[in-house]
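Q: For a teaching session next week I want to show students how multiple molecules come together into a single three-dimensional assembly. I've collected the sequence lines for a complex. Could you give me the predicted structure tokens for the whole thing so I can convert them for display?
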Amino acid sequence: MAQYVKKDDDRDEEAEYSPFSGIEKGAVLQEARVFNDPQLDSRRCSQVITKLLYLLNQGDTFTKVEATEVFFSVTKLFQSKDIGLRRMVYLIIKELSPSADEVIIVTSSLMKDMNSKTDVYRANAIRVLCRITDGTLLTQIERYLKQAIVDKNPVVASAALVSGIHLLQTNPEIVKRWSNEVQEAVQSRAALVQFHALGLLHQIRQNDRLAVSKLVTSLTKGTVRSPLAQCLLIRYTSQVIRESSMNSQPGDRPFYDYLESCLRHKSEMVIFEAARAITELSGVTSRELTPAITVLQLFLSSSKPVLRFAAVRTLNKVAMTQPMAVTTCNIDMESLISDQNRSIATLAITTLLKTGNESGVDR
Amino acid sequence: MESCPSVKNILLLDSEGDRVAVKYYSDDWPTNNAKEAFEKSIFTKTQKTNARTEAEIAMLENNVVVYKFAQDLHFFVTGGDDENELILSTVLQGFFDAVSLLLRGNVDKKEALENLDLIFLCLDEIIDGGIILETDANVIAGKVASDSVDSGAPLSEQTISQALATAREHFTRSLLSD
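A: Of course. Below is the structure for the complete assembly, covering every listed component.
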């Protein structure tokens, strides 16, 4: 702690210091000419790219001419073998978002990188290429993307899957052809790959109720590895429950047991996702609500503000329609009235106004 | 509800509320002025709160914002108002811890600006177009610092010490070059 205090004292002297102080766009654009040097200084080139990214990040804009010029000189940097520099090149290309006729200039370099033996190159080149690509180019690289989805390196697979989620907005007919690979990736042992694959597979199938229902049925029986993937599965399960609610009898809700079992998951984000899903079930019975309210009540006394907020916000919503179900939390809710976080305190008060009775007001 | 959890922006501001590095993934703030106005209001709203030991949370313009401070740096992650708060805070924690690793524990503005390339790469490894790419700080920092590691070695096998070694080397180089 002493160190922190000292740091604050020193700050006045250092206030003016910044490697970017007095930086000007014109001068940096001049500096960018080093990208054209026959002998590339990769350290220097990286620094110039960082300056360009800094300017863009601060809200500076490049004119079309300036952006094109930078883009063309940046493409020269693909000659360098320096991985650090290459990653900065990928970043600046994404930020410059080149136009279709400019993209052609880097296509072959990026295609080479996406088939490289270096995993970092493969993953990043896929993300860049998919970001700047159009339909025609996409057909050319489709084969590699399908391979990448089932790549044994999880970083590469995730890069391809996440790119697929974005591309589905613009080129749905192409991405839908990757179903088999995506389905294989859902079984991946890598947690994040499973999450990304599940996200993409659901989006591919989202208009096919039966397919989504089958997906949920099979996955809720198996094991989902990542908490994020489990949260997705809870969302898809809620969707299936919503759509099938017409046919089922009250008290006989499909998949309720699955949602309830998620309340015992070891990850807080999954527990919360499940609790929230249960409270949002249409026509939820008080019997169905009880276990969800119980875990949310535990969150109310957590030391983490984010957990308290999430719980009180959800309970506040429940109190609008079913105030009786939330009264069990009144004591915990009262102690939140003086919470340091004003949002939490406000939510606690409005919840109590819906659930409280005279004895509560006296306290 | 969004079918896939999504992040609207990640902000790293200084103790005046000025940008160190920011990344927007949503069209909610189409112009730079709109972005700056959002940053100003979230900075003002959270300035007096204590978010140094635990991440804090606030609502702003129908968005959920989770945030954490360290010295003169303010970290923010924003999501839609029906996003799972705990997912957003996992992203925030991943970002915060990855930056701490990459800055070798010296989490302040000076160090962040000196290693701004690492911060940009770090943001790029956490979120891709609003979709969560990775939340494990060790993995994120490992991926960012991978340039000095043998390119044949799988990323997943990199250790924190390798990541730190790279960060350290990077730091020394930037000192020498100034």
